[in-house]
Amino acid sequence: MRASVAALLVLLFNCCAVAHAEVVNVYTSANFAPLVINHARGIYVDLVEHLNQQRLGDLTFKLTYLPRKRLQMKLEQGSMDGIVIGMMPQWLDDVGQKKYLWTAPFAVDRFVLVSRTGSGIDPNAAVSVSGRSIGLVLGYVYPGIDEWIARYGLVRNDALSEDINLEKLRLGRVDCVAVAESVARYYLKTHALSDQFQLADLPGQQTERRFLIPHSKAAVYDKLAPVIRRLKDDPVWQRSASKYQ
């Protein structure tokens, strides 16, 4: 009898725990390496898994893909039912960080110009890039780079993702590509192309990848923000992230 009562109490406890658990959708529009690789691994996938291992109260994080236009629409309409990974205040006209809650950066990147070795393309020489086609991601805003493109007269050629642009460059369908350095180096390394392409710095700020949290999810922010601040000193996370460098 006592065993039956004990088993019943354990069952009730587990049911209550499940009932109180909150699944937090972590949205991303990234579908390219090394951020997301085949929906199974990558920096974003590993980071969400790492957060779940931290056992942040009753929160369970779930990475969910959402096309950029739909993500933007949800943010503008105030209907975002989760948080967003890998965003930057400048991309959403929120430099003052008033529209949304922002964590500390969990990764710092920068944009580079990728072109074929020997192509003569130099981002600091207008004559070498004027009229050239540059691969960018459809719908993306590039602070500092957009102004450089207009000033130097490059022709924007959009694709759905950064790795598609790099593939177009490999096939000779664009002259150069503006892409995050981490993405470029991972692509060139995995395709053994490092000796065929060159990277050059582009104007603009560094890319600080952060979590965006709507004010309606302030309770999630309060639990998440301290963990993100500590990632730079977290050896487990640093080992995981180093796989994609």
From TrEMBL:
Residues 23-245 form the Solute-binding protein family 3/N-terminal domain. The keyword Disulfide bond does not apply. Gene3D superfamilies: Periplasmic binding protein-like II. The keyword Transit peptide does not apply. Residues 1-21 form the signal peptide. It comes from the Bacteria. Keywords: Signal. This is Transporter substrate-binding domain-containing protein. The lineage of its organism: Bacteria, Pseudomonadati, Pseudomonadota, Betaproteobacteria, Burkholderiales.
